[in-house]
Structure formats: C-alpha cells, structure tokens
Amino acid sequence: TVQYVLEKEPGFLYWMYIYQRGVLLNQLARSSYDLAILRLACLCRARNAQDYDQLESAWNQLGEHQQDVLSTHFLASGIKAPAIVFEFLPLCLERAKANPHVSVLGLLEVLVSLIQ
C-alpha cells in the first residue's frame, strides 16, 4: 500500500526495485556486484534473460579492477557517495548493443575511463 511505501527510506525502495527487476530477469542479487550489474541492466533497458546475459557477458570480459570501478560507481547514491550522472547512458547502452563496432564491452571500458 501507499502508506507502507511512504514509511520506507527512498534508498531501500530503490534497491528493492532493482532487486525485483533482477527477479523478473531470473537473476537473484547475492552480492554488491550483482546489484551493480542489475542496476546497469535497468539502465540498459534489459527486458529479458537474453538481454541480461549479453550484458553479463560483456561485464565478465572486464578486468577485476574495471568491475570494481563500475560497481563502486553504480552502487553510489550520489548523496552519501559521489556519483557521475550519465544522462544519456541508457541510450548509449542501447546503441552500443546494436553496433558491432562499439559493443557493450567497448562502452563499459569507456565508462571506466570516464569514471577514473
């Protein structure tokens, strides 16, 4: 109910939304890395398990340091921890997914460079 929602912290509600999107994609979040990938999946407009698998495949091709950089960024609230707003990131991810010359992996690597 609305009253229940109004009693909860906004951050809690946001991360529950991300978690529930993972459930819809058949991906349970068991770690902070999982939540970061799920947040990225939401930004990437992942609609099904195939979309998620494509994103996860690109993620797994990144090095550990690159994954750490992206995880830290995508887990940051922008309030308690600084974060960069990439206003057109959903569109960039969508276009990168459709462009074999760019690819999701290539875009993730560029994001790491921009965040650092």
In short:
The protein has helices spanning 2-7, 10-24, 32-43, 49-61, 64-75, 89-98, 103-115. It is mainly α and 116 residues long.
- Whole-number radius of gyration? 14 Å
Kindly state the percentage of residues in helix: 55-70%
Q: Which structural class should the secondary elements be placed in?
A: mainly alpha
Approximate shape: globular
Order of secondary-structure elements? HHHHHHH
Number of alpha- plus pi-helical segments? 7
| Main sheet makeup | none
First CA to last CA: what distance?
41 Å
Question: What fraction of the residues are assigned to beta strands by DSSP?
Answer: under 5%
Overall pLDDT score: 87
What are the low-pLDDT stretches, counting only 5+ consecutive residues below 50? none
> How many beta-strand runs?
0
Write the layout of secondary structure elements.
Blueprint: H1 2-7, H2 10-24, H3 32-43, H4 49-61, H5 64-75, H6 89-98, H7 103-115
Helix pairs in contact: 2-3, 3-4, 3-5, 5-7, 6-7
Task: Kindly list the characteristics that best describe this protein.
116 residues; single chain; mainly alpha
Describe the structure.
With 116 residues, this protein is mainly α. Helices cover 70% and strands 0% of the residues. The chain has seven helices and no strands. Helix 3 packs across helix 5 and helix 5 (64-75) packs across helix 7 (103-115). The protein starts with a helix and ends with a helix.
